[in-house]
Amino acid sequence: MDRRELLVLLAARSIAGPAGAQQKAIPVIGFLSSGSAELFAPVAAAFRDRLGEAGYVEGRNVDIEFAWAAGR
User: Which own/partner pairs from 18-27 qualify as long-range (CB within 8 Å, at least 24 positions apart)?
Assistant: First the structure.
């Protein structure tokens, strides 16, 4: 192996990262509402609390994506 091949191999490994370091995909919950975030803040908080009671913590083992239409 010459110097150029070695550099290409090292660059490819640095881009790919260490072996077995892939992150597991976590579930994403979509929370859609025709209201506004301010109006539904208590509902969103209760939703997060119930998920926590079921063992799901936002950012750790579940992601929640909120979308608000704000009456539009």
Answer: 26/61, 26/62, 26/63, 27/61, 27/62, 27/63
